[in-house]
Amino acid sequence: MDPIISVRGLGKQYRLATRRAAYATLRESIMRRLRGLGRDSTADGERTFWALRDVSVDVAPGEVVGVIGRNGAGKSTLLKVLSRITDPTEGEVDLYGRVGCLLEVGTGFHAELTGRDNVFLSGAVLGMRREEIRRKFDDIVGFAGVAAFLDTPVKYYSSGMTMRLAFSVAAHLDPEILIIDEVLAVGDAAFQQKCLGKMGDAARQGRTILFVSHNMAAVRGLCRRVLLLDGGRIVMDGDVDACISRYLADASESGANQVDLSMTHSRQGHGELRFHRITLCATGDRAIVPAGRRIELQLDMRVETAVSDVELSVAVDTAEGVRVCEWSSGATLGRIARLEPGAYRLNCGVDQNILSPGRYVLAPIARTGRRILDYVPGAMPFEIAWSGDGVHDGRDDPSGLVRVGSTWTPPESAPGI
Question: What is the DSSP letter of 25?
């Protein structure tokens, strides 16, 4: 069977500038050329990195393929290239069919427009004709469950309501190829199951699905094939259980106690505040904490636009994607009244470590009211290990969302971040 997606030698390079180069005059540019100096990228503080390199893969019609890997592995970049949002630096991609994609919550939405208007706007952005949207309108609204708020501006919606409506529009596009990038993480469990059911229906109808997620249970339940990415390359392609096992093992073995989040695309939120780095204050350079012992975290973040009424938290998920608990700044700091643009650092200490021995991942979240400013799922893998002295106050079954007591320090200015 001929592939519906064919990728050959795909690469995507980004140029990073550590500081802004001064503007050169036309005379200076000409003189540099005449002297044979050209452009001195090192002087300008520029460097490059490959988000994708030498990626080749074929996907057959009707396949449901999971794409997994750590933050920064290249998953979102791959999907953006396949969605024709980002141009590749090298290689080629052949797509045979209509493509529907949902890469971020509220894609194509306008905050000032009502839910009704945004259905038509988002549908048009995704390539649906007006008559097609009219014909499917009731089904879209019914699936999203927001009929009572249809004539309310989207800026008053919670992030969950916005996500439900955005996913519903994309799901009813009825494309031959459906691309989903970690958008189910902010939905409640019931809606996640509903979305997985919808994607399962699409797969049974012969549609091709590419599904990026840090929720290994969802990947295992939906997909029949998995691509494991690391460092912008496909390091494993094949059996679901084998790929997931290798991913979890690699995450545990390379569990550094500090993770740079500045370049990861696997994040959601409106972007006024962005997490820059997360550090687990563990012994040595491994992300391992003895069971029952105090957990200490350090969060570095940048505020691009002044924000008010901010709540910061860190969610804890099992390696399979089950939410265990959440450590919130609300109990200690309350809601932070205002953060001006700049870099900040704050610490979180958890004395009541109820986590059972096993592998987990941390996901920092910043909210203002119901608005998500930044959310990085699967940000840092870490491990709870037996302490060796019998100290363990945890439960045997790490499941169910619990608000656990934690102590937070107020954000301090950190201009070096």
Answer: P
